[in-house]
Amino acid sequence: MNQARDQILGTIRKSLAAGEPRTLMRLEELRSRIQHSRPQVQPEFDDDLLSRFCQKHVAVHGTYDRISVEQIESAVVKHLAGMGLDAQWHLGSGPLLDATQWTDSVFVYRKGADKDTKVALSEAVAAVAETGTLVVCSGPAVPPSQNYLPDDHLIVVDRRCIVRHMEDAWAILRESGVAKGRAINLITGPSKTGDIEQTIQYGAHGPRRLHLLIVEDA
Amino acid sequence: MSVSTASQRVEFQERARQALQDTSLQRALAKARGGFVDHRLDAIEALPEFDAIRDAARDIKNHVLANLDGYLELYEQQVIENGGQVHWARDADEACQIVAGICKDVGAKTVTKGKSMVSEEMHLNPVLEAAGMTVVETDLGEYIVQLAGETPSHIIAPAVHKTREQITDLFHEHHSPLGYTDRVTQREALVNEARSVLRERFVTADVGITGANFLVAETGANVIVTNEGNGDLTSCLPRVHIVTAGIEKVVPSLDDLSVLLRVLARSATGQEFSAYTSLYSGPRRADDIEGPEAYHVVLLDNGRSRLLGGQYQPMLRCIRCGACLNHCPVYGSIGGHAYGWVYSGPMGSVLTPLLNGFDQSLDLPNACTLNGRCKEVCPVRIPLSDLLLKHRVEQHERRLSPGFGRFLLGVWAWLACRPRLYQGVMALPLRLMYLLGRRRGVLAWLPGAGGWTGSRDFPAPAGRSFMRQWQNRKVKS
């Protein structure tokens, strides 16, 4: 196996006419480029971030409610009731969700989703106004299966977590150390496919619907 | 010309001929045509910075390729730091053995696969099946072609060549034994049935194999971009996650990744961003309650390292968006299977001979009208049509092109170097063709050119050559 590695790297060096192995200094140069990495060309837009984010989210078939922090449970219950669903869900984790005191009238499962899971409630680490994208990072209390197995995925977003560009979300992840977790999931609308006659159908393998609760006063 | 190259030629021409006569295929292609092109155009018109971002994307890829050994080493270090393993494979066979070995070691019975063009390049599925495993493609398009016993005919729309009626038949045949006895014909019902069947597979699989749109040296993550979420279920649920990727997929940082993501979805489907873009690195962490126990990356060379530093290096910038396929009139007429290997369209015509050998698939670089649309739409500015020309030149120089064609070219070159003689020889046929087509301005029939006039008219030339007309005018004035 190491033989294959050496041979491939050797051929690369020979083809690039660099000849001998990269010196440690060259590797340090590349490492330094990574460490000092900066955003490059970015799309410009003036809108305020919240409305841009909401507009982009709706454009990819998402729905949302703007709520206050004490309305989290009632907003979830109301949304589910509107679809004839019971008040039970798989629960992720995040500053807002962890601080919520769930009442006895709802059932929450703090575990990974399974193939029959109907609903999951997650919290976004960041939301990107540029594309209407939610950033959900895996962790001890955030199993990624919750993002993909339920029919209905609900995500709580702290309004202050809405950033302008994708690169701003990376900055948050780097700072909080979650950039190196097992999974960083960028979610932009519900699951869909165009594989039959190039016509979009929602709910391919992942959630059929994506609903956001944007908390304005956290 | 060797026997094998002769048979390659016949095979391509025969496949192309069959494709043109296949009414189902032509119906499916007609349905797809335009959609991708229009959506891409809409997305690009909404982004004034698109060209500047394309330049940045090209520059990032060039920088990586010029330092590929270093970035691969940095990426490898990160993967190991995250608790994963990196395997290096010189060719497809070696890569298959590595993957099969990992699967056997963990006693895998069922393997789910996210979409991976590199695993298609490896011909991985037959190897795993021969080892007694059940392999299930989970991307809906890949699943459809797997049921049909075929290969993908498009990088991002593997089943673009299938009509809804054909999909209905396939599902009915393969799902009936599973209890889905109703014959469903509507798109939504078809998608739901596949969702339901594949869900069972996702939760019972032992190993999940995905590709990688990118590998990030900064974090050691593999990036997968999907709309369905199948790649994520393949990555998250099984005990073992294996990533198969070409060595050229590495990018330095998350910021570099952003640049490439901004051009990828727009060029592929005309979306600003795909539904799911995910970064996976290493196995589950110590305190995670789910996720794979082991994480392996298989880096495949298969001829790529040889291309560095040469005239075809730009091809390694390719991010597999499929825009060149969508804009190619040849691809649009014959579909992907006629190309004979996993990569089709302009990028396939450039890449296939480079990876499989020049004496293979000789026709591919010639199945091109040199209209240049592929080069124009490429998100990383690969000069595809120029590279196809380079292939043709190389074929000629290596005497791989057909002898008769080379002979005619030689005759023409000899004549063209002797202007007086050239004009004398050309004057008569020009005059004749002019007279024949005088009335309609076109020729419906031309001796020796039945291949052309069989499906379209040949424009009739002006009776006298440009040189002659020029001289006449000079005399008059």
Overview of the structural elements:
The complex is a heterodimer of chains A (218) and B (477). Chain A is an alpha/beta fold and 218 residues long. Chain A folds into 2 domains: 2-35; 49-215, NagB/RpiA/CoA transferase-like (Rossmann fold), CATH 3.40.50.10420. Chain A contains 7 helices and 12 strands. A 6-stranded parallel β-sheet of chain A has the order 1-12-7-4-2-3, with helices on both faces. A 4-stranded mixed β-sheet of chain A has the order 8-5-6-9. Chain A starts with a helix and ends with a strand. The mean pLDDT of chain A is 94. Chain B is of the alpha/beta class and 477 residues long. Among the domains of chain B are: 33-304, NagB/RpiA/CoA transferase-like (Rossmann fold, 3-Layer(aba) Sandwich); 420-476, no CATH class. Chain B has helices at 3-21, 23-32, 35-45, 50-66, 68-81, 92-105, 117-122, 124-130, 140-147, 164-175, 187-204, 230-236, 254-268, 304-307, 323-326, 329-334, 345-356, 373-377, 384-397, 403-416, 419-436, 450-453, 466-476; strands spanning 85-89, 110-113, 134-137, 207-210, 214-216, 221-226, 240-246, 250-251, 276-280, 294-300, 442-443, 458-459. In chain B, helix 4 crosses helix 13. The longest helix of chain B has 19 residues, at 3-21. The radius of gyration of chain B is 26 Å and the shape is globular. Residues 1-5 of chain B have low confidence and may be disordered. Classes of the chains: A alpha/beta (218), B alpha/beta (477). Chains A and B meet through helix 1, helix 2, helix 6, helix 7 and strand 9 of A and helix 2, helix 4, helix 5, strand 1 and helix 9 of B. Strand 9 of chain A pairs antiparallel with strand 9 of chain B.
